[in-house]
User: Fold this.
Amino acid sequence: VLQMIRRILRIVVIIIPFISYSQITETFTYGLKVGALQSSISNIPEMISGRDNSFSNYSLKSDKIFGAEGGFFLNYKLPNTRVAIQTELLYRKAGDKVIYSNDLGKNYLLTFNYSYITFGALYKIYPIAGLNIGAGAFYSKNISSGEIEYESNEFDGRYDVINRQFYRDALKGSDDFSLAFNLGYEIEPGFHIDFRYYLGVSDAITNKGSDFKFIENKNTTSTFGIALGY
Assistant:
């Protein structure tokens, strides 16, 4: 992972001096983008309820978390058309969190905060001026499959480190494949803004159900994002 990050940083150092020239021709542009995300992963409470259902009165629910993504884009507008193909290489932080409480006063927070290297492409149509709509597909390589945090009020958090390691051993983040739907607007001389939704179609978490009493199910990602690019 560290070698991959170093390689990306070298690429950034090489490309940054040329970003001001991202408008090469009328049809081809490239540059940088950065954005904020709100993400979730489905069916996590149902997955871990096989282990945490020992009390009759308990609540186990998931909630979205905020993250970010940023990286490079290449946009090619087909000559004499209203169509473009945009490819992207991004670093992304996204995941989910689970909140548990029971009638005996036990509470814990389980946070999945994965890091991904994401690559994909969009097919974009420009109905008017800089306004564009698009759809595409993205593949995300999970580079922190064990990134799970555990916080509780049980014994003042004395066993949080042990419990955190337990979940890290039992649940592993997987690579993610998602469909993307985009609404964007390009502003001269080179700025653009995108509103995007990523719909995951693959299983984003694998678990050792037989060893840890978890229920095996499909956990798909759902991510909303807004990004600025130049």
